[in-house]
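Thread: quick sanity check before group meeting

JM: Hey all, I'm pulling together slides for Thursday and realized we never actually wrote out the predicted structure for the chain we discussed last week. Dropping the sequence here so it's in one place. If anyone has concerns about the input, flag it before I start.
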Amino acid sequence: MATIGVFLESAGGQPKSLLAGALAAARGQRVVGLVTQDAAAAAEPFLAAHGGGILVVLPGAPAAGEWPEARLAAFLVAAVKAEKIDILVGLATPLGRDVLPRTAALLDAPLVLDAVRVDFAAGVVRQPMYSGKVWADMKLGPGPSVVGLRLNAIPAAPATGTVETVTFSGTIALDVRIKLVEVKRKDHSGVPELTGARVIVSGGRPMAKWDNFTILFECAKVMGGAVGASRAAVDAGMAPYEMQVGQTGKTVNPDLYIACGLSGSVQHFAGMKTSKVIVAINNDPHAPIFTKCDYGIVADLFEAVPALTKALTVAGIHPKGGA
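JM (edit): ok, ran it. Output follows.
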């Protein structure tokens, strides 16, 4: 039986709901949840509702001048060693993409990022390569390994279990080469988080200007979704980079992806091709996107999207959980 460490990333003191997939995949192995102190209270019932295990809590908070991501990586390294964790798994979120590679480097361990399938019993991980053109099944060797899961790749399978909560008392070797001097935060209000969304409505070059994205936000809001953009739209200054989906943007894996005015370029498709259902809206019946989607609508997006929003509103569609 392998020991699987699950980094229980949190937001607002709550573990991210998409971690349920990682816990479902780890069931049957010895599971060790790793959580920061601010989310410990919520992590205990969350872990209990998804199979149970040992919950290790990182004590305290970062000191002045301490880089939080570096501290997290140091904690994960110490926990892997103390709990004799064979595979450390987390989510391939912006935080995960920062912390997990740091952890792997400090452990001198192999890293598989953006994994879409795991078999912890066999030690096999599947990862897309070459912009999703091929799938690579990799066998993890002896010693600790680090895996970052693509969001929404593994479905949840709730199952109750017992939880033993412990406060970590081991030695955390902080990286003194890094000192936090200043943090300048961007205003991301109004810009949705894409990577964990179950529904995404994306716009391309035909959106013409940022103000026109309002119709996409209205449509996404009805379904509790997020709004994305193509590289062409971002490069033209119509939308911020945080919204870019594609090979040079974010890789997403929603249940529903609505492509509005997108041609279906290889670069964009690489970032959303694993979406469960793809709907395309384009006024060009010969657009390549129509050969890649599940449902296609040949129409002016400025007419079709508001009509879709109205129909969903009338139907009483209610927002559902994202990340």
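AS: nice. The CA atoms of residues 189 and 307 lie 26 Å apart. The first strand starts at residue 3 and ends at 7.
JM: adding both to the slides.
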